[in-house]
Write a structure and sequence with these properties.
- With 152 residues, the chain is an alpha+beta fold.
- The chain has a single domain, classed as Beta Polymerase, domain 2, CATH 3.30.460.10.
- It has 5 helices and 5 strands; from the N terminus they run αββαβββααα.
- α3 crosses α5 and α4 packs antiparallel against α5.
- The relative contact order is 0.14.
- The model has no long low-confidence stretch (mean pLDDT 90).
Amino acid sequence: MFLEEQSRISEALGDTAKAIEHYGSTAVPGMRAKPILDILVGIDPLEDWVKCRAPLEGLGYDYAENAGVPEHHIFGRGRDRTERTHLVHVVEHLGRSWLSCLALRDALRNDPELRARYMEEKERAVAAAPEGRARYNQIKGPFLEIIKAGLK
């Protein structure tokens, strides 16, 4: 699914996208995940994110203006705004978010113990926040920040 969406996004964004990567839990073989495809689009400079808006909207994405992830411009696609199937995070290519997101993905792919600890944290967050993604992300956020800090 990622390769198909990567091709669509690459064609729509052209040279604006310096790179497109699959990240998040669905990018880690064997990890349980919500059925949401997380896609990282690297652009440079970050201010060029506005060049992505119309092409992504043309692919059926909408801009999640209040997503609340620093340094990320997020676009969602899916059945409606509450049931996303795809999330595109537009970030600065080779910037802090780009590097930390991919380092985390690669660490989870390569370290079964870290993957197990993260699964426990995700399950704790789901149990504590069954009503929505925002609270779920808030709960697991400190764990992710500790892991990302250790990857630098």
